[in-house]
Structures are given as structure tokens and as C-alpha cells.
Amino acid sequence: PGLFAQMGHVLVQQRRLDEAEQAYRRAIATAETFAESRLELAGLLVEQDRFQEALDLLGPLTAAPLAKAHYLRGVCLRALGQDREGLAAVAQARGLILAPYEKRGMMPQEVYVQLSRRCNLRCTMCGHAAWTDNSGFMDQAVFEQTLAAAKAAGIGILTVLSGQGEPLLHPQVFDLLERAVAEGFAVNMVTNGTPLTPERIDRLAQVGLAHLQFSFAGFDKESYEQTYVGAKFDKVTENLRGLAAAFRRHGSRTVFSVKAVCPDPSHDYVERTRAFVRSLGVERVTTVMPNNFGGIVSVGDYHQGAGMHSFKRVERHCLLMCRNLLRSIGVYHDGRVTACGCYDSNGALSIGEIGQGIAGLRTGQAFTHILDAFRRGDVSTLPMCAHCDDAIG
Description:
The protein is α/β, with parallel strands linked by helices. 43% of the residues lie in helices and 13% in strands. It has 15 helices and 11 strands. The protein has a 9-stranded mixed sheet. A two-stranded antiparallel sheet has the order 7-8. The longest helix has 21 residues, at 83-103. The relative contact order is 0.11.
């Protein structure tokens, strides 16, 4: 059944949905209780508006504490006109997602760090239109304070990522990365790759990062530069090729991947992007459609009922718990802390200062207010969250 399930997943990625459905059905026929394939097939049926079929398939799973099963059941019930029962099922799903975090005192699993508030690009899928400033670097003292707070909270993952800023622009970026690795953190970093040189590539390959994610788009000069405004296609592809070669040359254990944004979700665009990135020597490629960056960026269609732009069919789906809110906190370059390290460039969801300690921040009034809104399924009063499509579906 596991093999058929994996085949179904691959076929979904290739948009061969009829074949994917048959693969999932073979997995279920091979093992009636195989929950993964029931869930994946139910999700596929929901996307095709086959709600009653999906509901029948979910029946045996709703007695178990599976958040996805209760969520899909809720979507189906609402689509079939049973709104009250559907919303109750979605609320149950939110509770199941939240439960493990409540058991650990709401402690996050990783800390997002804004080494640089400055960015050198104006990418179309980014919320740069809302930036109130484009300057500032984290100093050594704030960085050390962040490491100490993470250690005190028992958090071992440090991710150099923020709603604004290119980390490689920081003058001491390599010293800070090496310091965090030496302290025992699993350090991840996301970069647009533009500030790299051959010398910097060689050093980056030896830092000891757990994961380096290179942000990219497209498959030629036009498709790349239309999205990554201000970057040069030839230079960036040279850096990508150089990084892939450097990691191999040094025998690095760093997971090196490309996350390619696909503003055109068509099968042809996605597959051309994958093929091009792999031709540069990169083995791990993930393609994603852009989200609306906390409601700031107009992507996909405008959904009148939800009051937001999104590639998702948001009228069909419901608000869940925000995975970014639960998994992480974001520390700005100046030591302020936001509940949303992914999109909040201006501190709209600020919850305090890193000197207060992570445990205190996650149980404090500001974070609890945000969390309670998600728990109720009503984030209409929260800045950014009210029009963000990330936690929908």
C-alpha cells in the first residue's frame, strides 16, 4: 500500500489526477485500514467537488485523532449544506493540531532570525510594498542574546529567514552562522543567492549548515527576472551551479535545495522550471505557487467572499491553526520578536523583546491573544492574519 500511495503522490504532482485516484484506490484495496491513502484520496476528491464520495471515504477515520480527516470532513459537510456540523469538525481539527503544542507549553520548534533587514531585490511575490524601512543588521550582542534564549528554551533549530531581508548582505554573516553552528544549533538559511561570489560560495559550503534553501523562479532570463526584480539571471544561475558543485566538492552534509516560485501554476511552467534547475546540478527542487504574503500581494484570483487574493479556492476551505505561528517565532535585527517570522516585516504581530525569554513570550498576553483568535476560527481583528491565505486549508 505504501508503494501505491507514493505513486499516487507523484501522479498528483504531475497533475495526472485520474491515474492518481486509481493508485490511491489500489493502496486502499491492498490494505483497507491504510489511512494515508484514504486521506490523500479524500483530499483529491474534495478538489474535484466530489464531496459525498470524500465524506464516505473519511468515515472510518473520523474516530481517530487525525486532524486532516476531521478538517476534510468539515469541508465536505459545509459544501453539502451542513454548515454547523462542518464548522464543528473544523474546530476539532484545529484542536488536534494545537494539542501537541499545548503539551509542551506552547514552545516553538525553531527560531527565525533576521540577520539583515535590508534586501537588494523587489520580487513580485514579496510584500516589499509594505516595508517601512529597508536597512539594519543584527549586531553580535542581539545575536548572542537570541542564541542564549533559544538554548534556555531547549530549541535546537535556528532558521535565518524573515519577512524582509537578504541574510548574505550582513557584513559578518559567515561569522554569525559559524558561531551558531559551533553552539550546536541546526542552522538553516534561505537566500536569493545574488550576493554570492566564488570565494563566498566556497566558504558557505564549509559552514556546516543543516539546510540551505535557494529561492528561484522560472527557466530562462525572462521568466526569472520578471519575478526576481533587480536580479540578473546569468549571475544567479552561475551561483546556483557553483553552490551545487561546492557542496559536492567539500563532501558537505548540508541539505541544499531550491524552492522555485511558480507564478504560472500550469504543468508546462512547473516542469520546465524543475528541469532547468536540475540541469544546474541541483537534486532537490520544490515548486510552489506564491501565497498572498499576509494579504499584501495580489496573487491568483480575488475571492469576494473571503476578501483576499489567493491561488487557493478559499471559499471551499476553512481557517486552520497557522503552522508558522505554532512552529516558530521571529526575532528582528533589533531584538524585537514577532509571532510571524515569515511575513511580518513591520512588527504588526509583535509579542515583545527577545530579552524576555521565549517561554515568557509564548505564554504572554500578546501571543495568547493571537492564538485565541485562531482557536476560535476568527482572525478578522488580527493585522495580516485577517487576509492571509497561508492558514486556510
